[in-house]
Structure formats: structure tokens, C-alpha cells
Amino acid sequence: MTTLLPRPNLPTARPIWRTALVVALSAIVAACGGGGGGSGGSTSANSAASGSSGSTSPGSSGTGGSNSTAPSIASFTASPSAIGLGQSATLKWVVSDSSHLTLGPSVGSVTGTSLSVSPSQTTTYTLTAAGTGGQVTATATVTVGSVALQYGSMAGADLGVGANLNGALPFPSDNAWNTNISQAQVDPNSANLIASIGLSTGLHPDFGSGTYNGGVIGIPYVVVSSAQAPVAISITAYPSQSDPGPFPVPANAPIEGEPVNAATGGPGGDMHVLVIDRDTNRLYEMWQSVPSHFNVAGSSWSASSAALFHLDSDNVRPTAGPDWTSADAAGLPIFPGLVRYEEASAGLIPHALRFTVSQTRAAYLPPADHYASSNTSTNLPPMGMRVRLKASYVIPASFSTESKAILQAMKTYGMIVADNGSNWYVSGAADSRWNDSALDSELEQVQGSNFEVVLMTGIVNGQ
Predict the structure, then answer these.
(1) pLDDT above 70: residue 233
(2) Are residues 262 and 160 in the same domain?
(3) Residue whose C-alpha is closest to residue 223's, from 309, 303, 149, 154
(4) Would 77 be classed as within a structural domain?
(5) pTM for this one?
(6) Disulfide: which of 101, 288, 331, 359 matches 304 by Cβ 3.0-4.6 Å?
């Protein structure tokens, strides 16, 4: 009798020929780009390499594009940002990780890093950078005025007191006074700095057509030619920080605060004298100025300090040493920051403005070069601090052309702290054409809370 042995408990085996067939079929499916199967939903080789066929949103890496980097526009600027009708500006950009650039309106695809444009009206250009990682955009505005602008050349200016400049502008277009800061970052301490000047205090035009204490309101200036004879200047207070002269100052040059038709006695206050030589592109400024007919000696002008500026260069005052004052407490030139009727009435002020605050700190920020305080609080403005009217502030359509131009300049170019004085006092040139009531009533509606401080870098602290 034969005894049957127990059958071993073996796993069910797949026939060898069937296993080989499954492997072969899987390879064929993969090679043909078939969909992935099995746990985890792995993507086939072809779909992983090709990525998404659709457009990606800004900052997205796209399907299968885990190594893609979103394009970046480090900067997009217009230089100059303000031109006259028929003139050109250069759009410049710095872009990375982009395979295609387009510029609108009405331009299309662009290459390189710059493009010259000649818009017939104020135009905001949009640059779009696209790549496998998505797309990003940036904007730059070119403001177009009716008068051709000549940066760094005063040759087109008229002669005389309060003369029209006819589009002539101090300094090259890339100078700090002429730089568009509308897209600049906000300083992290902006709120405290603005609060120190006054959140609910309105703007005050420190210029106009009327008089105060018998003198015209504002800072006067005179334009001369190279034929104007230079005269000796006696520096009484800051000779070591002054340009010694001689200066081409006319005997009848207007003095800030000088009583109208004064026969005897001198003016009071800052007594600034500003002289522009249109032929040499030089600006001469004096503080606490006294002409010969008020001097005891009666032989020349005297001033507490005097400064000479080169209007055709970014090396604005090559004769100055570090920490020098000027006719201004900040060591800045005064004239480039004045509100002038000629520009305001034309609807375009293409430069930064000058203003005063009651408390500053012992520090300055270029382009300023001097401070006039012993207070070291970081919540107080340094000389040279720039503020900007917030983009969210809507300039009322009912405002006068002049007020709208002034406020737009504060949005585009901002205002620079230039001296100690009353808070939010905006400096300008005296002119009989100003409408004082409109200026006062309209500008005082714009308060400190409507401003922000532009990011400050390079602050020089006092000793």
C-alpha cells in the first residue's frame, strides 16, 4: 500500500511566460506615453518632460516644472520721466529668468535692456516678462508737457527777476532733484517720521503774490548773463564753508523778505539771494544777504554764507567739503526745489520740491550735506529726507491747475527736507500771478497723513 505524502504549501506561481508578457506590455505602454498607473499616480516619462501646455499664472512653476523660476523685473524706469512734446525718453529695464518681453501700449515684443520712446501725451508703459515660471509686469510713466525740457542747460532762460526759464531745468535728468520716486519703497519708520511733522497739519504755500510785513511772499531769484560783472562778497559767519566769490550779483538783486520800495534799513529773516547765470550754468546763493547800499562800508555785498552750484553736472558743488552748509541748512541748493508759477500754470513741475519742518535730527541724507540739530532721535527727520504724496490720495478735479500740478509733483518727485522752519511749509518763488486764496484753501486740505517717507539709505549721523 502506497502512502501519499502531504503536498507542500507553496504560493500560487504565475507561469513564467505570462510574467514575461506583462513586463513586455508595460514597457510598450510606457514607451507610447500611456497614463501612469499603480499607487502614487506616478507621471509618465514624456509628460514629465513636456510640462503643462497651458499658460501659467504669475509665480507658478507650471505642471512638471518644479525647477522653473518665475521671471523677475528688478527695475523698469523712464529717463527722463518728464519731457516736452516732440522729445524722447529712454525706457530701461533689468529683467531675469524671462524668455519673452513685451511692452505696451502699441509697442509689442522687445529685446535688449532699453528702448527710446516719443509719446505725444502722458503715457504709462507696461513691461511684461514671461517665462516657463510664469509672467510679471511693471510700469513706468512718461509725463509729456507742452514745453520742451532742457536738463542741465539754462541757455533758454529769459533774463531778469523771476524770469521764465522756458523749460530749462537745473542738473541732468538723472540728478536726485529730477528723479521719479513714485515707485520707491516706503521707509519702515515712515509712520513715526510723518507723525513728528504733523499728521493733521495741512500743507502751507510759503509763496504767493501778496506781501508779509511789507515784503513779497516767497524766495525771489534773478537770471543774468555772463555780461553781469562779478562783485566781491564779504562772508561774515561761515567763511570756511562758503565759496569766496566774487559773484555776479546785480546791485538791485531781489532779497527774500526785503520790504517793497524800501529806501532805508534792511530786510529780516533768511534774506536769501539767488542768482542764475544762464550762460555759464552756474547758480549763486547767499544767506542773510546785505547789499552795498545797506552796508556800512558801502562797497560790496555781504552774506553770512555763500555757495556756488554747477547746474550742468551731477557734481553739484565740487568746491564743497564734507558737512558744509550752504545758503540752506541742509547744504542743498534752494532754487531747484522752488515751486514756480511758470511750471505750475503749465500743469507740469518735473522736479522735487523743497519744504521745512520744525524739528530735525543731527543727521543728513544725500543729496543733503549738512545738519542743524543736536537731537539724535531716529523718529525725527534728517536733513534731505524725502516724502511722497501717497498714490492712494486722489487729487480733486475741482482744484486749480496750479494746485494740481504741485500735488502731482509731490506724488512723482516728492519733497525734500531742506531747512528748519514751520511744519509742511512748501517753498516757492514770489510771483504776482499766483492766486493766493486758491493756493491756501486747496493745499491746506492736504494733510501730513497723506504723505509717506521714501526709503532712506546712506544716512550720515552727526558727531
Answers:
(1) yes
(2) yes
(3) 154
(4) yes
(5) 0.81
(6) 288
